[in-house]
C-alpha cells in the first residue's frame, strides 16, 4: 500500500480550526466586496502586481520562513542540489497529517519475529510523541530526553535562535501542558500513563551509546528525530548507524530547517553512500500535545490563542508585515500550493519520513561486525 492510499490517522483540530478561520475571513472579504465593489478592484490590482512580481522573480529560491528556513543560496552547490531534489520529491508525498503517526501505525504488529526491533523517540519533552507512537504501533517505544531542554543553541533560520535549555520541563508551558494532559513525573521522567514506553533520562551524547551497546544485534525499525539541533541529530545518526537496516524508517520532525536535521542527514547519507526514499511530508508531532489536553474548553483556548499568536507575532506574521524582507520572499517566491497551505493552517509542515533502501558503506561494517 502506498502512503497516499493509507487512511488518515488524524488531522489536528488546530489545523481544522485555522482553516475554518481562514475560510471565514475569505467569506467576510467577499461580502465586503459585494457591498463595496471598489475593494474588488483593489484586491485585483494587488493580485496582478503579485503575479507580475512572481514572473519577474522566477529564479528566486523558494522560501517560507520557518518552513524552508533560510536562503539556500548561502549553501555550497551540492547541498543546494540536495535541497532542490528534496523539495521536489517531498511535494509528491505530501500528507495532511503526521508522518510519525502514519509510519508507526503501518508497522507490523508485535510478534516473535520483530521482538528485538527498536522504536526510538529522540526528544520527547512531556512524552506525548512517545506515548502516541506506542499507541499507533502497539509496540514498546524508547524515549530519550534530558528533560532539561536543548543541549545546544538551535539556529532555526537567519532570524531565530532557540537557546539551549529551552523545552525544559520546568518551563511554564511544559508545566501547564503537563497539568492539562494529566502528565506527572515519576523519578524525574514523565509517567507512561498506561502506554508501553520507557524513558531514558540524560543527554543523548551520554545515553544513546550505552543503550544500544546493551542491545548489540537489535535493528532500528523506527527512528524519530526531534532533538532539533544539527549537532545532536548528527551525533544520534552516527551513534545508531550500526543498528540501521534496509527498511529502517527515519522520521525527522524539523527536516525543512535546512541548517539543522536536514543538513545532518545530508552529511550522514553522503558519508556512507546510503540509499533511501522519501515517504511522507506532513505535520510536526508537537502539535498533538494540545490535542491531548483533556478539558475541551482549555483545548479550545489553546487552539484560538495559538492561532492568534501565530498570525500576529509568531511564525505567520511575515505574511502581512510588508516592511519585512521575508514578506516579499514568501509572496514572490514560495510555490502557490505552499502559500495556500500556510494560509490555511496555523502549524508547520516540517516533518518528513524516509526509508533506508541501501546501506552503502554501512553494509560492509555490518558484515565485518
Ligand atoms: C521539540 S522538543 C520534543 C518534542 C516532543 N517530541 C513532542 O512532540 O512533544 C525537543 C526535546 O529534545 C530534547 N533534547 C534536545 N537535545 C537533546 C540531547 N542531545 N539529548 C537529550 N535530549 C535532548 C529537549 O530537552 C526537548 O525536550
From TrEMBL:
InterPro entries referenced in this protein's UniProt entry, alphabetically: SAM-dependent_MTases_sf, TylF_MeTrfase
The alphabetical list of record keywords is: Membrane, Methyltransferase, Transferase, Transmembrane, Transmembrane helix
Give the UniProt record's GO annotations in the biological process aspect. methylation
Mind listing the GO molecular function terms for this protein?
A: methyltransferase activity
Query: Which SUPFAM superfamilies does the entry link to?
Result: S-adenosyl-L-methionine-dependent methyltransferases (SSF53335)
Question: Which Pfam families does the record match to this protein?
Answer: Methyltransf_24
Give me the segments passing through the membrane.
20-52, 300-321
Domain of life according to the entry: Bacteria
| Protein name, as recorded | Class I SAM-dependent methyltransferase
Q: What is the species listed in this Swiss-Prot or TrEMBL entry?
A: Mycolicibacterium sphagni
Amino acid at each position: 500500500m502506498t502512503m497516499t492510499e493509507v487512511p488518515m490517522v488524524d488531522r489536528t483540530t488546530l489545523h481544522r480550526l485555522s482553516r475554518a478561520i481562514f475560510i471565514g475571513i475569505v467569506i467576510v472579504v467577499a461580502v465586503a466586496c459585494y457591498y463595496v465593489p471598489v475593494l474588488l478592484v483593489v484586491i485585483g490590482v494587488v493580485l496582478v502586481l503579485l503575479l507580475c512580481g512572481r514572473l519577474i522573480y522566477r529564479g528566486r529560491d523558494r522560501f517560507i520562513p520557518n518552513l524552508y528556513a533560510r536562503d539556500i543560496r548561502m549553501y555550497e552547490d551540492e547541498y543546494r542540489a540536495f535541497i532542490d531534489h528534496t523539495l521536489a520529491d517531498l511535494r509528491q508525498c505530501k500528507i495532511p497529517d503526521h508522518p510519525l503517526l502514519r509510519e508507526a501505525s503501518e508497522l507490523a504488529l508485535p510478534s516473535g519475529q520483530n521482538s528485538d526491533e527498536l522504536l526510538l523517540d529522540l526528544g520527547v519533552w512531556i512524552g506525548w510523541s512517545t506515548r502516541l507512537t506506542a499507541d499507533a504501533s502497539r509496540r514498546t517505544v524508547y524515549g530519550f530526553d534530558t528533560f532539561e531542554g536543548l543541549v545546544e543553541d538551535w539556529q532555526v533560520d537567519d532570524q531565530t535562535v532557540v537557546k539551549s535549555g529551552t523545552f525544559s520541563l520546568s518551563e511554564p508551558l511544559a508545566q501547564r501542558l503537563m497539568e492539562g494532559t494529566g502528565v506527572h513525573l515519576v523519578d524525574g521522567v514523565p509517567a507512561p500513563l498506561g502506554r508501553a514506553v520507557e524513558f531514558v533520562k540524560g543527554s543523548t551524547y551520554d545515553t544513546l551509546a550505552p543503550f544500544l551497546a546493551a542491545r548489540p544485534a537489535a535493528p532500528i525499525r523506527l527512528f524519530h528525530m526531534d532533538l532539533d539541533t544539527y549537532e545532536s541529530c548528527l551525533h544520534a545518526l552516527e551513534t545508531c548507524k550500526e543498528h540501521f537496516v534496509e527498511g529502517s524508517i527515519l522520521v525527522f520532525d524539523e527536516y525543512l530547517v535546512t541548517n539543522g536535521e536536514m543538513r545532518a542527514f545530508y552529511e550522514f547519507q553522503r558519508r556512507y553512500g546510503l540509499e533511501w526514499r522519501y515517504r511522507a511530508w506532513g505535520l510536526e508531532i508537537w502539535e498533538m500535545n494540545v490535542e491531548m489536553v483533556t478539558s475541551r474548553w482549555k483545548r479550545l483556548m489553546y487552539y484560538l490563542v495559538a492561532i492568534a499568536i501565530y498570525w500576529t507575532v509568531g511564525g505567520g506574521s511575515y505574511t502581512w508585515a510588508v516592511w519585512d524582507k521575508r514578506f516579499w520572499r514568501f509572496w514572490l517566491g514560495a510555490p502557490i500550493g505552499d502559500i495556500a497551505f500556510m494560509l490555511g493552517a496555523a502549524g508547520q509542515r516540517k516533518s518528513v519520513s524516509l526509508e533506508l533502501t541501501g546501506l552503502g558503506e554501512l553494509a560492509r561494517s555490518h558484515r565485518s561486525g
